[in-house]
Amino acid sequence: MPGEEPVESVAPRAASPIPPDTILIGRKPVLSYATAVLMHFTGGANVLTVKARGRAISRAVDVIEVVRRRFLGGKLKVKDIKIGTETVGEGGDARNVSTIEIKVEKVD
């Protein structure tokens, strides 16, 4: 219409797809994620990666410990732990956020 300014379209940032053997930890309760881990292992898979960043790191550790001690009775082995830092935000709002990746394997 006359008099209206054109709307500038902004292409959304391409998010990398989440691999099927990865669980991202967020704000849900620990047992929600523990259930997701158990469902992954009952589906026949033996390896899983749990990823978290910022305040969710402690929740990720809790999820692994709950599954390992309470549900799988020690049949879960931690294979690898990677820690790092991501820059979140742009320009003056940019800040560093800690990250963790915990790779676990179900042992029979």
Can you describe what's shown?
- With 108 residues, the chain is α+β, with helices and mostly antiparallel strands.
- It has one domain: Translation Initiation Factor IF3 (2-Layer Sandwich), CATH 3.30.110.
- It has helices spanning 30-42, 57-71; strands at residues 22-24, 47-53, 76-88, 95-106.
- It has a four-stranded mixed sheet, covered by helices on one side.
- Helix 1 (30-42) links the parallel strand 1 and strand 2.
- The mean pLDDT is 87.
Write a compact overview of the structure shown.
The protein is of the alpha+beta class and 108 residues long. Helix content is 26%, strand content 32%.
Short key terms for the protein model shown above:
26% helix, 108 residues, Translation Initiation Factor IF3, alpha+beta, elongated, single chain, 4-stranded mixed sheet
Question: What's the layout of helices and strands?
Answer:
Blueprint: E1 22-24, H1 30-42, E2 47-53, H2 57-71, E3 76-88, E4 95-106
Parallel strand pairs: 1-2
Antiparallel strand pairs: 2-4, 3-4
Helix pairs in contact: 1-2
